[in-house]
Amino acid sequence: MSPPTPRLRRALPVLTTALAALLCALASPPAAADAPAAADAPATADGSADTAPADTAPAVGDSPADWTAGPAGGGADRDARPYVYLEGTPGTALQDRLAVTNPGRAPLTVRLRGGGRAGAWIGFAADTVTVPARTRAEVPLALTVPPDAVPGDASGEVVADDGDEEIRVPVRVRIGGPTLAALTVEDVEISGGTIRYALVNRGNALLEPRLAVRADGMFGTLLDRPERPLPLELAPGRRVERTEPWPDAPALDAVTVRLRVTAPGGARDEAEASATYIPVAPAVGGGLLGLGGLALLGSGAYRRRRTRRGDPEPPGAESAGDRQPTTETRPLVKAGPLVKAGAES
User: Could you report how far apart the first and last alpha carbons of the chain are, in Å?
Assistant: First the structure.
């Protein structure tokens, strides 16, 4: 056999690369062959089979991080509701369904419970539900409004727990009867670059408050933030403490901060607080200088007043030149006879 020509030697790497690409293309179809298996997925109670694509399902033994829970529905917008919403009068029982979807390849077991005010009124057809792989299960729930419930809005949640993570589905209930929207802003305080305040829902309706902030100093307006929605829902009777940042607060000024809150339904309230901003270091130095100056002024005034009144100098104040010499008189001591020891023999 004759050795390969130079042209053939140059073509060998190209042929090898093409052969490897062909082998990879032939090996990829088995991964997509699992897709038809979705047709064998179990059907739900309403006869529909909800499956997830095979390439999105986690491997067996992986944490089922992709399972979902939410309000059930009908038609194409089955998962369109962001929360469970029910309306009724006190003493009535309201019904809905919770959907749990398991896109994994292993069965999923979740425990259901209610949370919050409205969540305590919920009962489930089954507190523990096992959802087969690639299946959607719908669990009936019933919410009974207490006979003594106050008309207005109540909120809560449904909690689905698989042991590793929880999914919380909001629940809102509109209780029939006259409603009152009342909101107050309280305990406004100013601390450095932070404004603290509290919001209290004094009515029986669920409120979505809005806040406007204004601060005025000695020389004009320092802060003017227009009304904006706050990221919270205030249930009846609920109190929430919040802070408003003020990073560019003045260093030296006397300010008054006013907060105005509103909410749908005519709820409205205002509150204000005042504060004085003084730089710490100059204030301390100025205070010490002021005290020293007051001490000097007081001492000088005291001396001038004594001079005008002609008050005598205190004892010990006279100079040494003003003192008169004094003659000290001592008593004479009479000398007696001298007796020498040992004079007698």
Answer: 169
Tell me the helices (H) and strands (E) count for the chain, helix number first. 4, 16
Q: CA-based Rg of the chain, rounded to a whole angstrom?
A: 46
- From start to end of the chain, where are the E strands? 68-71, 84-88, 93-102, 108-115, 122-124, 128-131, 135-144, 152-161, 166-175, 183-191, 194-201, 210-217, 220-229, 239-245, 253-263, 267-277
268, 262 Cβ separation under 8 angstroms: yes
Buried/exposed 107-117: b ≥16 CB within 10 Å, e otherwise: ebebebebbbb
Which class for 151: exposed (0-12), middle (13-18), buried (19 or more C-beta within 10 A)? middle
User: What is the tens place of the pLDDT at every residue in 133-161?
Assistant: 999 999 999 999 999 888 988 999 999 99
Rounded Cα distance, 299 and 296, in Å: 5
CA–chain centroid gap for 78, Å, is 33
* Kind of pairing between the strands at 166-175 and 210-217: unpaired
Local structure of 131: helix, strand or coil: strand
SS3 166: strand
217-273 pLDDT, tens digit per residue, is 999 999 999 999 999 999 888 999 999 999 999 999 999 999 999 999 999 999 999
Q: Which residues contact residue 199 at a Cβ distance below 8 angstroms, ignoring those fewer than 6 apart?
A: 183, 184, 185, 186, 209, 230, 234, 239, 240, 242, 261
